[in-house]
Amino acid sequence: ATLMLPRGRAPAPVVVILHDALGPDPRSAVYEDQLLGAGLAVLNVVALAEPEALAVLPAALAAHPRLRADRSGLLGFGEGGRIAAGARGGFAARALLYPGCAALPALAEPGPVLLLHGTADPANPPA
Q1: Residue 101: closest CA among 84, 117, 120, 77
Q2: Fewer CB within 10 Å: N-end or C-end of the chain?
Q3: What would the DSSP string read from start to end of 44-109?
């Protein structure tokens, strides 16, 4: 994983980015730039061996003096969105981009969720 810190703000809330099954792609760069520009730290998880490892992330993030682990969130693309839906560990929010509808009942903990789905996607029709 790679941790990117915003300029001038400490401690900063942190967003953990979880990628699709094929790994990182150019989609995440736009989100990283926007999050950093908004004063949020970004932990870009390149590979996640075990989804259960996310449960220990808030405690690990809390040990970093420039992060606010109590304000941590998850941003997942595809498979990363499905992992984010099922993650435990007290994340303040989740943004799921194309996780597939099957992931929604798997939401492990209540809390804010942003689910985005486009209408012009032949592989994932809105219905």
Answers
A1: 117
A2: C
A3: EES--S-GGGGGGHHHHHHTSTTEEEEEEEEEEETHHHHHHHH--S--SEEEEES--GGGGGG--S
Using only C-alpha atoms, the chain has a radius of gyration, in whole angstroms, of 14
Lowest mean pLDDT among 38-42, 75-79, 98-102: 98-102
Query: For residue 41, which amino acid is it?
Result: A
CA dihedral (78, 81, 83, 85) in degrees, to 10, reads -140
**pTM for this model (two decimals):** 0.83
Q: What is the pLDDT of residues 26-53, one digit of tens each?
A: 888 999 999 999 999 999 998 777 777 7
In the numeric block, which tokens belong to residue 126? 């809105």
